[in-house]
Amino acid sequence: MLQAIGKLSALATIAVGLVLGTAAEAKIKVAMVTSESGLGDRSFNDMMNEGMKRAVKELGVEYVVIQPRSISEFQSTLVRAAGQGFDIIIGSSFDMIKPMQAAAAAFPNQKFGLVDVGPDPIASNVVSSVTKDWEGSFLVGVVAAKVTKTGTIGFVGGKDIPIIHRFFVGYFYGAKMAKPDVNVLESYSGTFTDPAAGKEYTLALVNQKSDINFAVAGATSAGVIDAAKSTNTFAIGVDSNQNYMAPGHVLTSMVKRVDTQAYDMIKEVVDGSFKGGTVKYYGLKEGGVDAAMDQYNKGLIPDDVLKQIDELRQKVISGEIVVPNYFDLKAGQKEMGTPPIASPPSVVNKPG
Q: Among 76, 79, 73, 89, which Cα is nearest to 33's?
């Protein structure tokens, strides 16, 4: 009898082992491919990585982070990842569109995701997302125009490319709505990976009397924040909440919930609802963007300005205010948005 029980126990143990083994084999495997600035940028990539961590905790997936050293490595990195059996490979760069299209064509059965790019579908096996960063930039533009003491505010973009112009147009629109006579300076450092360049470009803006500068430059943004601290001016952070990086000198941060976007892509694979060739939008209405308020910038923005921000947020959500999206604007367009405001020179002179 004892011998029989022993055999049954052994069989049960084997059965449990087989079940556990099957469950382990069935675990969804995810690859995150960073932009060139990689992890540790305290911005876009780090924010997206938070979505990966959430997926591990809530969905039980496994993930690895792959960090190409340059844009030229994007395609080869994606192709190598596609050969390793990941259930989904998620990228995080506007510069990754063409490399991902090539990899998706070579591996038509591989699921891909690309976070925060343009409105056009990438490929039939790629789901992508658009963050309405122009709506979040609108809010911080209002804040900057209301708080500036010099009447001049600035913008430090990474590269002079359309997706960065989306931020500037929203920022400019918000600033001009809040204070029509505010002077808005526009500059581009040419890099997403060089904090020293960010500081240099910000100091140049400060020399032109800009006392609040919006950093939209990946890891380069750290230099914008450092310059704010050293000149006793303000920076505005981007992507993740960067208020903590220089308490008292980061007026607010335009937060982009790319963590939620990455998580949602993974969840679709887990629950079987993944549909390639689609583009999902995340704006103020969807909780995809906002101006960050916390203990690190408490008291920097007057209460009446915070109240106005709340009112404007609701007007954007309701459609009463339509913040212009750079991608929708035409070359030579002299007014933009609802209500209309005069376009900046970069829109008027936009390539056709």
A: 89
Domain match, 150 and 225 both: yes
For 169-224, write each residue's pLDDT tens digit. 999 999 999 999 999 999 999 999 899 999 999 999 999 999 999 999 988 999 99
255: three-class secondary structure by DSSP: strand
- Is beta strand 29-33 parallel, antiparallel or unpaired with respect to 62-66? parallel
Q: Are residues 13 and 63 in the same domain?
A: yes
**Dihedrals phi, psi of 175, to nearest 5 degrees:** -65, -45
Instruction: Report yes or no: 131 and 288 within 8 Å, Cβ to Cβ.
Output: yes
Please state the pTM of the whole predicted model. 0.81
Residues 127 and 137 in one domain: no
The residue among 114, 84, 88 whose CA lies nearest residue 101 is: 114
Q: What is the CA radius of gyration of the chain?
A: 23
Report if residue 2 sits inside a domain.
Answer: no
Whether residues 93 and 150 fall in one domain: no
Q: Give the Cα separation of 251 and 242 in Å (integer).
A: 10
Domain that includes residue 104, residue range: 7-131+259-282
